[in-house]
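Retro notes
What went well: the complex prediction finally ran end to end.
Inputs used:
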Amino acid sequence: MAAARLGEFELIARFFAPLAGPGALGLRDDAALLDVSPDSQLVLTNDTVIAGVHFRADDPPDLVARKALRVNLSDLAAKGARPLGFLQALTLNGSITDAWLESYARGLAEDVSAFHIPLVGGDTTTSTGPLCITITALGETPKDSAILRSGARAGDVVHVSGSIGDSALGLACLMGALNLPPEHAVALADRYHLPRPRMDVGRALRGNATAALDISDGLVADLGHMADASRVGITIERDAVPLSASARAAIAADPALWEKILAGGDDYEIAFAVPAARTAEIARIAHETGVALTPIGRVTAGTGVTVNAGGQPMTLSSTGYRHR
Amino acid sequence: MAAARLGEFELIARFFAPLAGPGALGLRDDAALLDVSPDSQLVLTNDTVIAGVHFRADDPPDLVARKALRVNLSDLAAKGARPLGFLQALTLNGSITDAWLESYARGLAEDVSAFHIPLVGGDTTTSTGPLCITITALGETPKDSAILRSGARAGDVVHVSGSIGDSALGLACLMGALNLPPEHAVALADRYHLPRPRMDVGRALRGNATAALDISDGLVADLGHMADASRVGITIERDAVPLSASARAAIAADPALWEKILAGGDDYEIAFAVPAARTAEIARIAHETGVALTPIGRVTAGTGVTVNAGGQPMTLSSTGYRHR
C-alpha cells in the first residue's frame, strides 16, 4: 500500500455522495430505495468480497459463495425487505479450477433455494489479482415501510439479534491467534464462514423499529453509524450484549477478548431501536422467529456511542470503534 | 494463467444457468428482466471492467469512469430501456491516489448528468490486484416491450447503428500496433475510450425490432449470439458494414484490417433485426435520432453467421468469430 488516500467513508462522502440520487440515502445506509411501482419500493444493495481481505483464499468454495450472498441478504434483512433476485460479478484468476467452481456453484445453489433468491444476471471476468465477488441483491418492501438507519429517537431501546462476536472470535481461531477447546473453535469458525441473515426478524421489525442496520463493521462502529445518521447518542451495557456459549467460554478465559467481540465485526446480526412502549412486541417477534432479540441499551440525546461496563464507561483502544 | 478451465460461456452454462430465475433469460442476454409493477419491467445489467484487461491502466481516469458506466448503458439501450440508476462496486489498490479518484469522479459526474442516471449505491474495497469496477445498471421498459436477442425470424433485415470497428482500430493505434495519420488515430482512440450508448435508438426500436443486442464481443460474434438465441442463421455483406472515414482510410491502406473491424469488439453499437416491411420505419428513426442505421444483411433459415465479401463467403481466421 503506497499512495496516501482518504478512508472509505471520506472517499465516498467527497467523491461519490454528490452523484447520488434521492433513493441512495446519501450512500450511508445498508441499501438504496427506488420507487418502481405505486405500492412497493425496490431495495438495492451491493457488496464485494475479496480473497485475502473478506475471506481466506483457502476457505471452502461452497462457504465462500454462501457468505458472499448472505452478506447481501443481511443488508436486505436490515431493511425489512423480501429478496427478489441477485446479480453476480465474478472475477476469477488463473488458480481457480473447475473443481473450485463446481463447489462454489453448489454452495450458491443451496442458498438460492434456501432464501428463494434466484440469480438474475451477472458477469464473469478474469484478472491477475485475487478472486473477487461482487453481488448486487434486490429486494422489495411495501411502499415507505423500509427501516432506515436514521430514525432512532432518544428514549428508544437498542436491541441486537442473535449473539455478537462469534465471527471475530472464529476468525481468530482459524488464524491460530486464539486457542479454544475444539467444540468452541468449530462453532465460532462456523459463524465466521456462514452468516445467518435475519430475514424474518427484519420483516417483522417493519412498523416496530425506528432504525435498524446489519452489524458488519463491528457492534460499536455500526451503532455509531446509527447514532450519526439519527443525530442521537447510544449508550449500551457491555454485560447485556448477548454471547454464545462459546464466546462466554472465551471471555471467561480472557476478558480482554471483549474488545474483539464489540469491534470485530462480520456479525451480520441486526441492531435496531424501538420505542420503549413497543418492547413487548419485540418479545413476541423473538418468540415467533426463534431468534433471540436482546435489549442492550438506550438511545440518548447526546452523540456517539458509550459502552458501560460495571457501571463505568469503557475505554476502547481501537480507532475502528467510532466513525464520526 | 495456470489451471485448465472452461471458457466463460461454458462456465456460465454449466455452473450458473441452473441457478437462474425466469427473468434471467438463461443468463445469455445483455440484461435481465424483472416484474416489479403491473405495467413496467425492471431491466438489470452488470459489467465488470478491469485495468489491463478492459481498459489500459494509464487511461485517463475520467474516461475510465465514463466507459465503465457507458458499457452498462449500452446494454440498457439494446433492450430499449430508460435508465433508472446504478450501483458501483469499486475495488481500488495502493497505487490509486486521491487525484486519480477526483478525475474519475468528475468523469462519472459528467455522464450521470448526461444520461440522467443517478448513483444509488455501491461498495468501495481495496485489494492487491488491478483496479476493478463493477457497475450494475437498472432501467425500465413498459411491460413486455423489452427487445430480446431471441426474436429474429428468417427474412428479417439485420441493421447496425453508427459505425463498426472504430474502437478496435483505436486500441491498435494506442498500442502502437497500427500507424495512421494523427487525425484518424485520435478519432479512433476516442471511440475506444468513449462508447456512445444508443439510448434513443434503442427506445425507438421497441415495437419495431424483433431482436437486438449491443456489440461488445465483436460484430460477427455478437450476431452469432443473436442467431443462436433466435435459432436462425444470419448472412451479412461485408461491404455494407458502415465504416467511419478513419476506418475507411485504415482499410484502404491495409485490407487485412477487415478482420479487426468485424471481430475486434468494444463497438457498443446496436445490432438489430426488423421485418422487411418495417424498414421505412427504421429510416425514420435514423432521421429522428441522427444516428445512422444501416442494413447489412438478412436473417436466414440456417444457423451461424456468414459474411459475404465480393460475392464469396469470407474465411475468418479468429475462433472468436463464432460462439456456437
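What we learned: The CA atoms of residues 148 and 167 of chain A lie 25 Å apart.
What to try next: split runs per interface for comparison.
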